[in-house]
Design a protein that fits this description.
The protein has about 375 residues and is of the alpha+beta class. Helix content is about 65%, strand content about 10%.
Amino acid sequence: MTLEGDQELDRRAGWLLWWCSVALWTVLALADAVDYYATWRLDGMPGPFARALAAAFPGWELWVFLGPLIFLATRRIGLTWPPRPAPLAAHVGLSLLVGVLHTAVHATSGWYFGSRPSTLSRFDYYEASLFDWLPINLLMYWTVVGTWYGLDYYRRYRQARFEAAELGAKLSEARLEALRNQLHPHFLFNTLNAAVALVRTEEGPRAVQVLTQLGDILRHLLQESTEPEVTLADELAFLQRYLAIEEVRFSNRLSVLINVPVHLHRALVPNLILQPLVENALRHGLGGQDGAGRISISAVSEGDALRLEVFNDGAPLPRGWSLERAAGVGLSNTRARLLHLYGSAASLSLVNETPTGVVATVLIPFRLPPSSLSHNGDNGH
């Protein structure tokens, strides 16, 4: 949730609290009015129910306005533990003032509309009401103060969680950016090495072709957004630029097959997720072969998951090889990025295929960009 959304939620919660307080004091006022009316009936002094409402409502509904004022006073005059004398004295004084004010309003409405012993003077009636209502009013005052501190504690707790989540997101984004910054020089270094190798073998035109393709890739890397995810279509477009370089380097010995259904082109994938896997296949799978080699890239949706596969028909993985002990920048970087982006919901594996070849598999949650969700309800499943 954004900070603006959190503030809007606070505003709505404030209005909800207001209307809840109106409902609470109204219910109590109605109960008091019913008590007035029933007492009159039992004492043989019938009167209209509207008179009972007039006697009961002013005192109870006054709390609708006293509550926010007490909230404001509590926010301005904070209490601490251990209590400091000045704020505590201020609240004690305010609680007595609120108690006297409420008693005055309640006693006035009771004097004019309620039933009272004819032997009591107005002063005696007010004095009796003060002794009856002051303890209740003090309890109500401190209940409102306690409610404010409870809500403030919850607000600060929620704000702390929001700030912690925001900090975590920024930290994760910084880590992903660091991983990407590590990947880009690695990729460029290997591509320049390919161009240098062509120059050394006196294949100048092909070297120029590689450097031209490299220029296109550099423009892409410099202009790309900082988003950690891109659509599969964008990822494939970048991969094809990279493969154009590798096809020049491998001459006629490399064939590439891309088998990705059109409805998966909108799926979100980590930025530069396929290039390290293809590079690994070329270097370790096909790099040592004298004959032709084949690489295939495929994607398939499996329920709520998207499976990406990069297969090469070259040399198998050595006996005892494991991804956890792989020291290459590409694979270790890919694993780290998947962990940061998806946690345990993503995985990377490399296994030998039968009868020959190696397949690298990335499994990630299937997600579409927000703009695509509004136009494609079934998202191709």
